[in-house]
Specification:
With about 180 residues, this protein is mostly helical. The protein has helices at about 1-5, 15-35, 40-50, 80-90, 95-110, 120-135, 145-160, 160-170; strands at about 135-140, 175. It contains 8 helices and 2 strands; from the N terminus they run ααααααβααβ.
């Protein structure tokens, strides 16, 4: 894995997987090295890294319809003003930074703002918020992927983030010791 993160190619890993890993490396490098202010522009930049060379457009809100595999929910086509309002609501006062980051992550996943890389963008964006304060890290352990995907599918359908946030706090949030 270290070879891949350094930009070297591995024979046993597909080119598509190597691109995903390299793009994630670049997105993480961006948030760690620049500690960006959190806003829609930052989310677009994260998607620009995460989805680079994977779709026709990256780093820009999608302009057409998409479907989410395995569910009947179809997210509306995003528009800049409504996304800005939603981000303000999600990040509003009165909730903990962790709750806001998790809710933001789920909002980004369900909204499918981009043509590709929405879940990866959402996780990196939520971690950018948390790492900026040095308290937590969101990581879905491999042994929890099936449950994560089941709960995410339920969330796509009903739009209620509470069950998933509670579950993620138990299984996917790692405290960072300063």
């Amino acid at each position: 894995m270290g070879e891949l993160l350094q930009g070297n190619k591995l024979q046993a890993v597909s080119d598509d997987d190597q691109l995903v890993i390299a793009n994630l490396r670049d997105a993480w490098s961006y948030i760690i090295n620049t500690k960006p202010d959190f806003n829609l522009s930052t989310i677009k930049t994260i998607n620009g890294f995460v989805a680079k060379d994977e779709s026709l457009e990256w780093g820009k809100l999608r302009t057409g319809s998409v479907q989410i595999g395995g569910v009947s929910y179809i997210p509306p086509i995003p528009d800049e003003k409504s996304v800005q309002r939603s981000l303000i609501n999600v990040m509003g006062e009165g909730r903990s930074l962790l709750d806001a980051a998790l809710e933001l992550m789920l909002y980004l996943m369900r909204s499918q703002l981009f043509w590709d890389g929405n879940k990866r963008t959402a996780i990196v964006a939520a971690n950018a918020i948390l790492l900026g304060k040095g308290h937590h890290l969101i990581n879905v352990p491999l042994k929890q992927f099936d449950m994560f995907n089941r709960l995410l599918s339920q969330y796509y359908m009903d739009g209620n983030p509470n069950r998933m946030i509670d579950w993620m706090k138990m299984y996917c949030v790692v405290a960072i010791d300063n």
